[in-house]
Design a protein that fits this description.
Radius of gyration: 30 Å
CATH architecture of the largest domain: 2-Layer Sandwich
Largest sheet: 3 strands, mixed
CATH superfamily of the largest domain: Cation efflux protein, cytoplasmic domain
Order of helices and strands: HHHEEHEEHE
Shape: elongated
Number of strands: 5
Amino acid sequence: MKLNLLDRILLGILLVVVIFCAFLMFAVALGVIPAGTAAGLVAAAGTGLRNRVILALVGLILLLLALKIAFAGRRKEPDGSQKAVMQAGEHGTTAISMAALDEMIKRHCAEEPGVSDCFTALQSDEDGLSVGLRLSVRPETELSALAARTQASVKEFLEGVTGIPVKDVSVLIESAKGK
């Protein structure tokens, strides 16, 4: 878990408060601070509307600090660093970035007769890869044949090159323009 500067400062504040509370409890347990004095401080903090509001705000701030620190390392990876697992073996896993898959698919689609441009949307999970294609095609292209051919060729290409199972390939014909 990598924390940014703000999270480290908040963690430091929270740790100081926890250390103070731990020291206070330890001192009461050893008899260094009489239990009556500690109980009197707690009772005084809970009397009067102003003291209770201050106590509630401090408690709320400490709770929010603790929750912020607890979830600080659970940030989503940037899109460029998402990976699809190619294979997991006894020596570790092999993965490929979504950006690399995207580039491979675009190059493959560019070789397809009738396709003038290709945009991709990829989603990877434990069952495999889902591929979404938005194609710009040449006006003279037979669309249903192109869509079926592209779906089959992209699925076969990706599974053959990467070994990643492809669940589905969806095609959207976006425009028909000449090139």
